[in-house]
Amino acid sequence: MLILVPEMTGWLDALIQGVLLGGLYALFAAGLSLMFGVMRLVNLAHGDLIVLAAFVILVAAERLGLDPFVAVLVALPVLFVIGFALQHVLLNRTLGRDLLPPLLVTFGLSIIIQNGLLQIFSADSQRLRAGAIETASIPLGGGIAVGVVPLLTLLSAVAVIVFLNLVFYRTPIGRAFRATSDDLEVAQLMGIDHRRIFAIAMGIAFVVIAIAALYLGMRANFDPTIGPARLLYAFEAVIIGGLGSFWGTLAGGIVLGLAQTIGARIDPEWQILAGHLAFLLVLVVRPRGLFPRALD
Amino acid sequence: MTLLQTRNLTAFYGDFQALYGIDTTLDAGETITIIGANGAGKSTFLKAIAGLIRGPADSVRLDGQPIGARAAADIVKLGVALVPEGRRLFPSLTVEENLLIGCYGRKMSGPWTLDRVYALFPILRERRSSAPPTLSGGQQQMAAIGRALMSNPRILLCDEISLGLAPIIIADIYSALPQIKAEGTSVVLVEQDIVQAMKVADRVYCFQEGRLSLEGRPAELTREQIHRAYFGS
């Protein structure tokens, strides 16, 4: 039988928890990666949209008396429509040669969402309550256990990445996503209405945002102001992984999660710093990320 | 019967006027060629028809219907497909995906299917899973033409399909033209290679600095006329 000395157990535990935490960051980042991949949109409101989605799930769960896992199923179509409409009505008007308008508009959106949520829900911390599953864990032996919710987070992240890859590389709409991203003008010559394609992409991104919000709300408290920090993690995961690759985004999330838990293992104060240092290190060593798309 | 007509067609890039009052017609089943020096407005003319540059509705008419103000995505659905200058295949799509996207979101109806395009350009079947940047220039041009054919156009607009290709490859590509025309497709070619242009055209238009400088049937035009229309006097 394998016997682990306590020191080794601690490190192994940090590695496992880091990978699981990476699943959460990958979920934060997947929607951002999708938006950038299709419409070259840098969405500064991404973190706030995740928080907004968490509140939508919260309301659905409380009003309808649903478990968060069921409430998210109710929220998914609602958020798809919100995403579609947001892109169609607002963001499509900002996209063009100039990179500044979408940045300014999504920055403004971020402020509006934060203050809107504060107005409606106050600054109180909230949480999605899922009952016994929140604290359930699976012992792996040797004093190491994995929480069921963190494990589900990682599995969901992998499922989201597999789903996005299937959509992108196995369906006609995925072909249209890639074609539009490659060459907007020629895509129109093919009969592709790029405004509609962008709106569908944003709808799908919002579905991913809803899934990220579910785990955000179950794993920790949230309040209307925590969006920008999630945005930062999402950005770092996307950049570490390399723009335009969904698997890279998953890897980027895991690198970030690992760096944070390993940093925390060395000194609890180093958790956040270690994540940012890992990000900077990747930028220095591989400026295009770990898995950049071959053609760019 | 007139299929496509431009009347007093103008085009602007910002403040710069690229076309001045161009009047042309294209009859059903006809092939016309637009010749002219660099910057004469030939590509702009095709872009204006394809809807990439929009103007007054009645400056372009298809079957008598004004389409000058319609978006490019609508115009291809009306049966006008453009093979853009420089091929412009989608690099992140395979060759076959590039062909398939030619009829995106529409039910294919007409002679051109994936199999027909592969029969026209057999090399594309061999390279169907390849990424476009790995293809030779000639193969890329074939894929770009095939992609446009997949929309089963009534009018095929081709922008400089011989550009940068070896003469033997150009001959290869032009040898596909009769088969395309045999399906009743009308063709508008923009071509710098005057000899090639004269060979395939029913009628020729020459542009000079955004203006129409000459039109006529190849057999009726003299060398001097063309030289003057092309370079100015």
Task: Give an account of the 3D structure.
The complex is a heterodimer of chains A (296) and B (233). By secondary structure, chain A is mostly helical. Chain A has a single domain, classed as ABC transporter involved in vitamin B12 uptake, BtuC. Chain A has a two-stranded antiparallel sheet. Chain B has 233 residues and is α/β, with parallel strands linked by helices. Chain B has a single domain, classed as P-loop containing nucleotide triphosphate hydrolases (Rossmann fold, 3-Layer(aba) Sandwich). In chain B, a hairpin with a 2-residue loop joins β9 and β10. Chain B is globular. At the A-B interface, α6 and α7 of A face α2 of B.
Primary descriptors:
heterodimer, A: 296 residues, mainly alpha, ABC transporter involved in vitamin B12 uptake, BtuC, two-stranded antiparallel ribbon, 11 helices, 3% strand, globular, B: 233 residues, alpha/beta, Rossmann fold, six-stranded mixed β-sheet, four-stranded antiparallel β-sheet, 10 helices, 10 strands, 26% strand
| Inertia-based shape of chain B | globular
Overall radius of gyration of chain A:
19 Å
Name the average pLDDT of chain B.
Answer: 93
**What structural class is derived from the secondary structure elements of chain A?**
mainly alpha
| Low-confidence parts of chain A | none
What's the topology here?
The complex is a heterodimer of chains A (296) and B (233).
Chain A: H1 6-39, H2 46-64, H3 68-90, H4 100-121, E1 137-141, E2 144-147, H5 148-170, H6 172-182, H7 184-189, H8 194-219, H9 227-241, H10 246-266, H11 271-285
Antiparallel strand pairs in A: 1-2
Helix pairs in contact in A: 1-5, 1-8, 1-9, 1-10, 2-3, 2-4, 2-8, 2-9, 3-8, 5-6, 5-8, 6-8, 9-10, 9-11, 10-11
Chain B: E1 2-13, E2 16-27, E3 31-36, H1 42-50, E4 60-62, E5 65-66, H2 72-77, E6 80-83, H3 95-100, H4 114-120, H5 122-126, H6 137-149, E7 155-159, H7 167-174, H8 177-182, E8 186-190, H9 194-200, E9 203-208, E10 211-216, H10 223-231
Parallel strand pairs in B: 3-8, 3-9, 6-7, 7-8
Antiparallel strand pairs in B: 1-2, 1-4, 4-5, 9-10
